């Protein structure tokens, strides 16, 4: 049975679409990244029965960025970003492992249906998905089509089924237009932003913005706001006068008349007209006109109009509005919210859409009336060819949607009902009067038929006092005539709604990006939002725009960006070449950038007037380590320290308070330390201003404080105050805050975890000793006698904050879930059926034989990230696996494939996620039992085996090598023969990482099962390599894998070393300062290897290097089954060697290091370690 993979843009969309297409009969499971689910069902596709797998991404899979070294602001000239700096696609959210997740789900699939949003960004994501999955999908025949695109505008049964029945292809041109926009914005924005940020932040102290950014769309958007500000500032009010007349007839209320001359700007002229009018005491009716008028119903709703109304009427910002609209869309309440179209297609089911609103009491009367009398055809609008107008797709209530969601949905629904309603009709009456020589008039409106204003009452005809009945020639008594003085008023600041209109008019941004650009100028502190959602430019925003105007007005005017947008549209339509448009635009902006740099003094002159020099800003705080004078602390964003004597500026952590730290100094550079704190109950840490900007050690980066400093002896460093691995993140360390007493705390130096403990303790110190159970540093606590919480009134205790029962109730976690292995809240309960796993399994399906290795790998990985000591992890995993293998695994069996070759042995497969959930529950039980009984761990090995690992992927897209260091070999496999064992291995994958991962997971398991492990280790190794190769053959056939791996493994048994290898991975021994070669790597050009291959009928050819049959550059490997037996799976092995000194092993190391140099390198490493 063939498999169809379907991919949506968001997890909620995947769930909704799969529910519709499967008619509610799909099974769901969590994907390996934990964020996306996979929904599976059987159905029909292209006339055949197939298995569907519906999943999703989370927006863009990849993002565009410069390669590593070009992200260093200090070492790269911004001008290089226009052409020299290479870009690369990186995973947009690395933590999601989206590429790996998609490849796992796509492996073995025959077709893909792309359900990404139907706009240009969606088309771009289509090709990001295809780039990830096509290498691992089944390869069909040349003529067979495997990629399909679904086009839909709403999440309704009708629309989804229509899309499934009319599948098309993704548009490469639309995707390229997005690629072009991304690269232009990246190169242009980064170049200008880096230059002006570094130039001005180094000169002025009160800019109050952490980034002085430039954007091809952002800057013209700011320009509109500053242009209105300039009009307000330059406005000069003028005085003018109007004639105000009031007349009445009989006992009727007086009428206020409008002067037909409107106004005059000369008071004496105005007074003259007053005198002329006062010559008559009566007002004569010159004419009475009555005209029926119509107020047109609105056109269908598009994105820009929705954003305008949401801002002006609902008080919701554009960014917030789009977030709510997207949520309503994914939940199926409205159609796709990004559209420029205001015209409904001819086949749009207006009546069916309206019927869904009949039961809502708010507008039920209007809807029923329309259905009974007939819908009015909506006004003709603009068809942009993208999506239908924004329309309600099903009924909803405020309780379902929440406050803001309901307000937006209510407006969208009212707008839709209005489009199919009648126009509003009213009668306008105008009475013309003459008083003396002057003409006046008054008018009034009387409603005839409310039409669409019944559902949009804010657009209705306001209630007015009715005009008196009169005819031509009637007379009214003049009550008063007077001259009223007034002044012209300036325009108001732009509202968001007005700004959106201007951006649409000038082609700045798209319906999707307009909210982003407005949000950016607010976040950069270029404008502030005032009452009524008016945008008032800040001093910085004004100066920047005026500076751009002085240097190059086109940088801020909308004309050039509008022209670029038109070119991008031509790319999308296939009428312009992607590379030519990109290069042309970059050439223009590159020249503008060079002119901008040369003319920056023009903008600087404006800055000098508006902002203070950095030397005159801030207040003295701490002493400089170079001149020993006080440096000034500048609080305005970005906060920093400046030494005016040395003319040096030092960065500081942002979003917190800075104060002097006890006048203590850094032992490295003599700078006074400062303390950064996020608040009384938050985290704080000291830092050296110089080290923060200039890391003193290789393993440190810019922006690290003392809590990450690796100084070996400084009392403030990580080495002195670090306690143990963070309970939440994988890379952080919990560090004692020595300033926090008497409310003591430790905080992670990477994430926001804060652990409060030992309140009211007199002293808390980190001890030199570490915990035997979890390897955390012990903490010595000294309490006052009157407030000690320790048992029996003790005042002093030293123990582990995680493991020591005395400390368990004195530790309180903030900002995160306690995940440390031995904390009382860890492993609280068994994992329920269907719940996501805390770590992802390696495979979707696993054989009974593979279950052994994959379960151990999963368990060790889980316990490692939770800080469990390796010995304990090995014991717990071994115990849990024994329990698992003794249980009934039949409920986890996968159904047999329909087509099975009777000559092949049937392999029982298990659902990996389900059986591993069962294993983890066993592991949880074992861990809880161990914690309750606190059984003493077995003693450590008699010798300490130091092991270090360094891995680098160089220019490869992803790391294909795997390694394993297992000093707890005996504990993991329950071996109790009195011989200490440690296992080390490196695997060099090629053609993918699958084979290397498989070997790193299963080779040591196969080795542990060999009966001759102790008596004949070499034979045991060879058998284990061969068996692992055979096992991988089965998996490769099931999942159509084509990768391979070489490898080198070593087993230390007591004082004996055994090394086995396959391919060109290598190991070396250093004995008494001399390099000892242990092995001869398998390479095709080796004479015996060449002879073996040729005897089998193969050949060795030179294609840049020697290759087997012109394919692989290795002659032995696990995997590579398309070249077996020429690429052999038989390992070589060095018989047991007495181990009297240190060993160095690796893969790729010997490609660049000569054997003669190894001993010197090892000696240097050994001395450096001490």
TrEMBL record:
Its EC number is 5.6.2.1. It comes from Lates japonicus (Japanese lates). CDD domains: PP2Cc, TOP1Ac, TOPRIM_TopoIA_TopoIII. InterPro entries: PP2C_BS, PPM-type-like_dom_sf, PPM-type_phosphatase-like_dom, Topo_IA, Topo_IA_2, Topo_IA_AS, Topo_IA_cen, Topo_IA_cen_sub1. Introduces a single-strand break via transesterification at a target site in duplex DNA. Releases the supercoiling and torsional tension of DNA introduced during the DNA replication and transcription by transiently cleaving and rejoining one strand of the DNA duplex. The scissile phosphodiester is attacked by the catalytic tyrosine of the enzyme, resulting in the formation of a DNA-(5'-phosphotyrosyl)-enzyme intermediate and the expulsion of a 3'-OH DNA strand. GO terms for biological process: DNA recombination; DNA repair; DNA topological change. Coiled coil: none annotated. Residues 3-153 form the Toprim domain. Residues 171-593 form the Topo IA-type catalytic domain. Residues 946-1170 form the PPM-type phosphatase domain. This is DNA topoisomerase. Keywords: DNA-binding, Hydrolase, Isomerase, Metal-binding, Protein phosphatase, Topoisomerase.
């Amino acid at each position: 049975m063939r498999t169809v993979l379907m991919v949506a843009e968001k997890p909620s969309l995947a769930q909704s679409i799969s529910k519709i297409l499967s008619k509610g009969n799909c099974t769901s499971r969590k994907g390996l990244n934990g964020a996306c689910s996979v929904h599976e069902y059987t159905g029909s596709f292209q006339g055949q029965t197939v298995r569907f797998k519906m999943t999703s991404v989370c927006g863009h899979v990849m993002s565009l960025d410069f390669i590593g070294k070009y992200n260093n602001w200090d070492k790269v000239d911004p001008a290089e970003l226009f052409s020299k700096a290479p870009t690369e696609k990186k995973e947009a959210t690395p933590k999601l492992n989206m590429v790996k997740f998609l490849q796992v789900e796509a492996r073995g699939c025959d077709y893909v249906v792309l359900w990404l949003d139907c706009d240009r960004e969606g088309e771009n994501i289509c090709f990001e998905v295809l780039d990830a999955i096509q290498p691992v999908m089944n390869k069909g025949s040349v003529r067979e089509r495997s990629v399909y695109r679904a086009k839909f505008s709403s999440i309704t049964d009708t629309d989804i089924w229509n899309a499934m029945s009319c599948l098309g292809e993704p548009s490469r041109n639309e995707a390229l237009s997005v690629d072009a926009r991304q690269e232009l914005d990246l190169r242009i924005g980064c170049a200008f932003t880096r230059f002006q940020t570094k130039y001005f932040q180094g000169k002025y102290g009160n800019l109050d913005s952490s980034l002085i950014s430039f954007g091809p769309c952002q800057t013209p958007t700011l320009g509109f706001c500053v242009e209105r500000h300039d009009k307000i500032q330059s406005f000069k009010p003028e005085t003018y006068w109007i004639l105000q007349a009031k007349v009445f007839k009989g006992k009727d209320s007086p009428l206020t008349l409008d002067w037909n001359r409107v106004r005059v700007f000369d008071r004496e002229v105005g007074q003259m007209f007053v005198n002329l009018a006062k010559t008559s005491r009566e007002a004569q009716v010159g004419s009475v006109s009555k005209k029926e008028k119509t107020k047109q119903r609105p056109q269908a709703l598009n994105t820009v109009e929705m954003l305008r109304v949401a801002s002006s009427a609902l008080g919701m910002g554009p960014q917030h509005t789009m977030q709510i609209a997207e949520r309503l869309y994914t939940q199926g309440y409205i159609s796709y919210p990004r559209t420029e179209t205001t015209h409904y297609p001819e086949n749009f089911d207006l009546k069916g859409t309206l019927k869904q609103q009949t039961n809502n009491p708010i507008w039920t009367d209007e809807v029923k009336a329309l259905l009974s009398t007939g819908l009015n055809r909506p006004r003709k609008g603009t068809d942009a060819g993208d999506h239908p107008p924004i329309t309600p797709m099903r009924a909803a209530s405020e309780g379902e949607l929440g406050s803001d969601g309901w307000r937006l949905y209510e407006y969208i629904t009212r707008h839709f009902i209005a489009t199919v309603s009648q126009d509003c009709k009213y009668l306008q009456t105008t009475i013309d009067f003459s008083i003396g020589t002057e003409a006046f008039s008054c008018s009034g409106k009387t409603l005839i038929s409310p039409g669409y204003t019944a559902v949009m009452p804010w657009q209705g005809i306001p209630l007015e006092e009715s005009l008196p009945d009169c005819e031509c020639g009637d007379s009214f008594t003049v009550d008063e005539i007077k001259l009223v003085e007034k002044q012209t008023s300036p325009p108001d600041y732009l509202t968001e709604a007005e700004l959106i209109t201007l951006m649409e008019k000038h082609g700045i941004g798209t319906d999707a990006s307009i909210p982003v650009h407005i949000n950016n100028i607010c976040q950069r502190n270029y404008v502030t939002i005032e009452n009524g959602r008016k945008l008032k430019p800040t001093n910085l925003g004004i100066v920047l725009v005026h500076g751009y105007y002085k240097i190059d007005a086109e940088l801020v005017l909308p004309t050039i960006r509008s022209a670029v947008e038109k070119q991008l549209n031509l790319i999308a339509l296939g009428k312009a070449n992607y590379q030519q448009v990109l290069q042309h635009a970059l050439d223009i902006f590159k020249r503008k950038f060079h002119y901008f740099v040369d003319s920056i003094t023009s903008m600087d002159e404006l800055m000098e007037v508006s902002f203070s020099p950095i030397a005159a800003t801030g207040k003295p705080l701490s002493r400089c380590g170079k001149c020993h004078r006080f440096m000034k602390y500048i609080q305005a964003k970005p906060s920093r320290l400046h030494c005016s004597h040395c003319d040096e500026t030092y960065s500081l952590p942002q979003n917190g308070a800075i104060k002097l730290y006890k006048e203590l100094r850094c032992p490295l550079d003599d700078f006074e330390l400062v303390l950064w704190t996020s608040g009384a109950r938050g985290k704080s840490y000291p830092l050296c201003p110089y080290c923060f900007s200039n890391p003193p050690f290789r393993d440190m980066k810019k922006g690290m404080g003392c809590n990450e400093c690796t100084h070996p002896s400084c009392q403030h460093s990580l080495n002195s105050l670090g306690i143990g691995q963070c309970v939440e993140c994988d890379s952080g360390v919990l560090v004692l805050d020595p300033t926090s007493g008497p409310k003591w705390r430790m905080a992670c130096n990477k994430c926001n975890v804060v652990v409060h403990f030992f309140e009211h303790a007199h002293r808390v110190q980190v001890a030199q000793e570490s915990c035997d159970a979890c390897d955390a540093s012990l903490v010595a606590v000294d309490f006052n006698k009157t407030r000690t919480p320790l048992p029996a009134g003790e005042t002093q205790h030293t123990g582990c904050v995680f493991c020591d029962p005395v400390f368990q109730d004195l530790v309180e976690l903030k900002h995160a879930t306690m995940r440390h292995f031995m904390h009382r809240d860890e492993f609280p309960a068994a994992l329920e059926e269907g719940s996501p796993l805390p770590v992802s399994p390696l495979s979707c399906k696993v054989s009974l034989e593979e279950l052994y290795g994959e379960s151990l790998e999963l368990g060790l990985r889980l316990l490692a990230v939770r800080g469990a000591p390796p010995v304990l992890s090995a014991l717990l995993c071994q115990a849990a696996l024994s329990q698992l293998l003794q249980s009934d695994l039949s409920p986890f069996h996968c159904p047999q494939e329909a087509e099975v070759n009777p000559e092949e042995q049937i392999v029982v497969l298990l659902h990996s996620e389900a059986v591993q959930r069962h294993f983890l529950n066993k592991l949880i039980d074992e861990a809880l039992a161990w914690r309750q009984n606190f059984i003493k761990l077995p003693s450590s090995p008699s010798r300490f085996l130091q092991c270090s690992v360094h891995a680098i992927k160089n220019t490869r897209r992803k790391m294909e090598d795997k390694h394993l260091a297992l000093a707890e070999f005996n504990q993991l496999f329950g071996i109790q023969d009195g011989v200490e064992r440690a296992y080390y291995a490196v695997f060099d994958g090629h053609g993918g990482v699958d084979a290397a991962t498989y070997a790193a997971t299963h080779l040591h398991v196969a080795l542990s099962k060999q009966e001759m492990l102790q008596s004949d280790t070499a034979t045991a190794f060879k058998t284990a390599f061969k068996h692992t190769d055979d096992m991988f053959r089965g998996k490769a056939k099931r999942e159509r894998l084509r990768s391979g791996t070489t490898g080198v493994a070593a087993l230390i048994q007591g004082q004996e070393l055994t090394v086995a290898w396959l391919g060109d991975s290598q190991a070396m021994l250093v004995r008494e300062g001399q390099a000892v070669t242990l092995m001869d790597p398998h390479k095709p050009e080796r004479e015996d290897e060449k002879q073996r291959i040729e005897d089998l009928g193969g050949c060795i050819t030179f294609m840049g290097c020697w290759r087997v049959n012109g394919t692989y550059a290795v002659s032995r490997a696990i995997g590579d089954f398309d070249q077996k037996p020429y690429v052999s799976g038989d390992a070589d092995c060095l018989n047991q060697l007495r181990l009297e000194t240190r060993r160095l092993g690796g893969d790729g190391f010997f490609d660049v290091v000569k054997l003669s140099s190894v001993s010197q390198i090892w000696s240097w490493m050994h001395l450096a370690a001490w």
